[in-house]
User: What shape does this take?
Amino acid sequence: MISSLVFLAVSLYLLLRIILPLPAALPVKLLSGAALLLVAQHYSLVRIFFGGFSSPEVPVYVLILSGWLSGSLLFLFLLALGCDILILARRIARFAASRGRRGSAGAFFSPGRRQALLVCMAAVPAAYAVRQAVNVPETRSLEVRLPRLPRALDGFTLAQISDLHISSLLREGWVKAVVERTNSLRPDLIVLTGDIVDGSPASRNDSVAGLRGLRAPLGVFACVGNHEYYSGFGAWMKKFPSLGVEVLLNRHRLLEIQGQKLVLAGLADPVAARYGLPLPDLASALAGAPEEAVRILLDHRPARAEENALAGVDLQLSGHTHGGQILGLAGMVARFNRGYVRGWYKVRDMRLYVSSGAGLWSGFPLRLGVPSEICGLTLRRA
Assistant: This one.
């Protein structure tokens, strides 16, 4: 897979720039190199030996350790690359200034010391990033002004939970804590915007049971994300109703609130094409919905915001991006999501909110500078 090839290239670079220059015996270098290559191929090993790529069935401490090691590998690569670029720039500058005379880099920056410093500088933030990844998300209170919102609905509240990724990493205790924090917002409505689970209903039965504790007067609704398809789509569509979660799959519910109508719609995910299942269909989702009612759309991926806005959606709630997870990756994530990464966007007359997510995929459990969140949204009349 692409991820394995990327990590293989990273490990080969580090082998050449970090391990081989070490002032150590050959057996030490060989063992270090083998360990490096083993960490680089952990995705392939998980896929082969531990029950699949999207939801490995391994103990939580193994997932945390592998996350820390792969994170350290990634950060070490970035630090080493940055260091090499600076060294190269310095040598070019000195060459230009002295016409070829070489300067000493100083005893402190000898290969052994430099390598040790880089390893420490990579391992520490990687450990912090794993810790941030498994933290219970904090709540965020936000307001959004909608021009078509009836006066009677001014102050209506909903809680958005996105990308729970309930898995071997994020288990029963974590789910219950998320539910408690969501309920503390006392929302009128709770919505889940996809990627709720990683793994089959049988393997996640105990963990997802906590979702039954979600409480809102108007109920709990969800759209699906790509990971629901990876995890056994049909089985989960039967399981979610028993958890008190109504899935809106290319359809809507018309909610009556203080004599006013509110349309809540949800879409399928494009990855459905791989499984021969219905693709996202906004026309079907809104069929029969009153034109005058405010329309809130649950769409796991934010990339279709322009099309949804043209169809008359007032507010779109999305996830999928995890906010980029690591500060500095937003630009790369934006390229795959039409520029939408996290936070508020105005798309024509529609408002779009992209959540940074409550959880994340266990195969890359790192967050740095992009905290997880549970969003409490209050609708206001513009």
Q: What stands out?
A: The chain has two domains: 2-132, 137-381. Residues 2-132 form one domain. The chain is about 40% helix and 20% strand.
